[in-house]
Design a protein that fits this description.
The complex is a heterodimer of chains A (about 375) and B (about 100). Helix content of chain A is about 40%, strand content about 20%. With about 375 residues, chain A is of the alpha/beta class. Chain B has about 100 residues and is mainly beta. Chain B contains no helices and 9 strands. Classes of the chains: A alpha/beta (about 375), B mainly beta (about 100). The interface between A and B is large, with 39 and 42 residues.
Chain lengths: ~375, ~100
C-alpha cells in the first residue's frame, strides 16, 4: 500500500508541509505566536522551557527542540530566540541545518520584539514560499512512521481501542514501517512482560531501567505509583491488578518485537517498534512523538480528549459509542466493543490503518480542522530555579 | 454478529472473559474463544467491564487475560464465577487506593 507524502532531504517523509516557528525559550513565545498567526503555512511550537533550569534539563530542552525542528512535517524552520536563554540555540540551529532544512533565527534582544517580528514575518513568508514548491509524491507505506498514545482511558480502552490501535502497529511494523509508543508510567506492573518482547537483553534492561527511574522520581516527590494502582476507580471499573491495567495500556503498542528504547526528545532511527521514555500526559507526550520523528499519531481514548499537535495530525479512536456520539468535534473513529480480539481485531486494525493512510495523504483530522493543539508541553525533570 | 456478543475473550490463552454488558446471575453466556464457541453459566451477577472465569482455576494458579498472567487465584475459582480483587492477587505490587497520580 502507499500514501502521498513530502520528500525530505534527510530521507524522511512528511505528511504535512509546514514551516515550523519554534520558540527557543518561554520568553520568546509571543513573537513566535504572532508570526505563526500571520503567516499561512507555518506552525508554532511554543513551550515554557529553556531558562532557569539545571543542566540535565537544559540538555533535554536543547535536544528536544533540535529534534522537533527535524520532524518530517517541517520543510523549514524559523527559530525565535530571546538572546540570553540557556537553551543551546546554536546547537539547535546546527542540527536542524544538518538535516538539510532551511533554518533561520531572529533574536528579540537585538532590537526588541517589534523588530524581531518584522524580520520574522519576512523570513517565514520566504520559507513558506520555498516549502510550497515541494510536491506530494507517492511513497510505499514502509516509509510510514506512526506514533501511538492513549489517554482519557475508560473500560473500553483496554478492551477495544487500545488493542485495535495495537493491531495497526502490527500492520505498520509487518509492512516494514516504524511505530513509536511510550508513556513509561503505564508500563508499571507489566514491565517484565514488555521486557520479554525486547530484541535483546540490553534493550530489555533499558526498558526495566526507565520504569525503575520513573518510579524513583515519583517516590522522591512523595508519591507511590505502584501502591496506588489500580485505583479505586479502576477497581470499580473492573480492573483487578496493576498487571491487568498496564497490559490494557500496553496493548496499544501491538505485539511485535521492541527494537530499542530512546530518551525523551531523541530521534528514533530504524524500522520496527520503538519505545520513547516519557510521561503519559498529552502535551508532553505528543511532543515526544513529534521529536522522535512521527509525522502522524494515533490516539486511543475512552472518555474522549481534545488535544492535537501544531504540526502532527492526531487521529482519535474510541471504543466508547457514547463518547463518539457526545464528542463529534474531537473523535475521528469508533471501533466495535469486540475490536479487541480475533476477527474483530483484524478488521478494525485494517480499517484504522486505511484512515492513517488517508490522513497521511492529506485528509484533515478533527483536531486539525478545529485548530485544537496549540499548547504542547516540553517534559523536564528538575526544579525551576 | 460480533456486536451482539455479551462478553469478550481477548486472547485464546485467556481463562477469563470480560462482560460487555451487565450480565445476570444464572444466565448462560455464549463466547468466542479464538474462533471456538464456548457457553458459560454465570454463578453471580457480572457488571459491565468486569470478569468471569471460563473454567476452574485452582488456588495459586495464574489468571490469564490478554494472553498473560494478570495475577494468581487467591482461592479456587469455578467456571462462571465472578473474578476480581476478592479472589485474585497481583504478583507485583499491592492493590490499594492511596497515592498514585491523578
Amino acid at each position: 500500500m502507499s500514501f502521498l507524502g513530502y520528500p525530505r532531504s534527510d530521507g524522511s517523509v512528511g505528511v504535512r508541509n509546514y514551516v515550523g516557528v519554534i520558540s527557543t525559550v518561554g520568553c520568546a513565545n509571543d513573537v513566535a505566536h504572532w508570526i505563526a498567526q500571520q503567516i499561512k503555512g507555518t506552525a508554532p511550537f511554543l513551550h515554557q522551557a529553556g531558562c532557569g533550569q539545571l543542566l540535565p534539563d537544559l540538555e533535554i530542552v536543547t535536544r528536544t527542540l533540535a529534534s522537533i525542528g527535524q520532524n518530517p512535517n517541517l520543510a523549514g524552520v524559523l527559530l525565535v530566540s530571546l538572546g540570553c536563554e540557556s537553551t543551546d540555540v546554536d546547537r539547535v540551529e546546527q542540527e536542524i541545518a544538518a538535516s538539510g532544512r532551511a533554518v533561520k533565527r531572529v533574536v528579540i534582544q537585538k532590537a526588541g520584539a517589534t523588530v524581531a517580528l518584522k524580520e520574522g514575518l519576512l523570513i517565514a513568508q520566504a520559507l513558506v514560499s520555498e516549502a510550497s514548491q515541494i510536491r506530494q509524491q507517492e511513497f510505499d507505506d514502509s516509509r510510514l512512521v506512526v506514533g501511538v498514545k492513549c489517554g482519557g482511558s475508560d473500560t473500553t480502552s483496554g478492551l477495544a481501542s487500545n488493542p485495535a490501535v495495537g493491531a495497526v502497529c502490527d500492520i505498520v511494523v509487518d509492512g516494514g514501517g516504524t511505530c513509536i509508543f511510550g508513556e513509561t508510567t503505564e508500563f508499571l506492573g507489566a514491565e517484565h512482560i514488555l521486557a520479554r518482547r525486547a530484541v535483546n537483553q540490553k534493550v530489555a534492561d533499558k526498558l526495566l531501567k526507565i520504569v525503575d527511574d520513573m518510579e524513583k522520581r515519583v517516590r522522591a516527590s512523595g508519591g507511590d505509583m505502584r501502591g496506588g494502582n489500580p485505583s479505586a476507580g479502576n477497581i470499580a471499573g473492573g480492573l483487578t491488578t496493576i498487571e491487568e491495567k498496564s497490559l490494557g495500556a500496553i496493548a496499544k503498542g501491538g505485539t511485535r518485537t521492541i527494537q530499542d528504547v530512546y530518551n525523551y526528545g531523541e530521534r528514533v532511527k530504524g524500522k520496527g517498534l520503538f519505545i520513547v521514555d516519557s510521561p503519559g500526559r498529552e502535551p508532553e507526550f505528543l511532543t515526544a512523538l513529534a521529536a522522535a520523528g512521527a509525522p502522524v499519531a494515533l490516539f486511543s481514548t475512552g472518555l474522549g480528549v481534545p488535544q492535537g499537535f501544531p504540526f502532527m495530525p492526531v487521529i482519535k479512536v474510541t471504543g466508547n459509542p457514547v463518547t463518539f456520539q457526545r464528542l463529534p468535534d474531537h473523535i475521528d473513529m469508533l471501533v466495535e466493543m469486540t475490536a479487541g480480539k480475533g476477527s474483530g481485531l483484524k478488521s478494525s486494525g485494517e480499517r484504522i490503518y486505511q484512515e492513517v493512510l488517508a490522513v497521511a495523504s492529506g485528509k484533515q483530522t478533527k483536531a486539525e480542522i478545529l485548530g485544537y493543539g496549540n499548547f504542547p508541553g516540553l517534559y523536564t525533570l528538575g526544579p525551576i530555579v | 454478529m460480533e456486536s451482539k456478543e455479551k462478553a469478550i475473550v481477548l486472547n485464546e490463552k485467556d481463562n477469563v472473559a470480560t462482560a460487555l454488558v451487565e450480565l445476570e446471575a444464572g444466565s448462560s453466556v455464549e463466547l468466542d474463544v479464538g474462533g471456538k464457541p464456548l457457553t458459560v453459566k454465570l454463578t453471580s451477577r457480572i457488571p459491565f467491564g468486569h470478569k468471569f472465569s471460563l473454567a476452574r482455576i485452582e488456588a495459586g494458579a495464574p489468571v490469564i487475560k490478554y494472553g498473560e498472567a494478570i495475577g494468581n487465584a487467591s482461592a479456587a475459582i469455578n467456571a462462571g464465577d465472578y473474578v476480581h480483587v476478592h479472589n485474585v492477587m497481583g504478583a507485583r505490587g499491592s492493590t490499594g487506593t492511596e497515592g498514585g497520580a491523578r
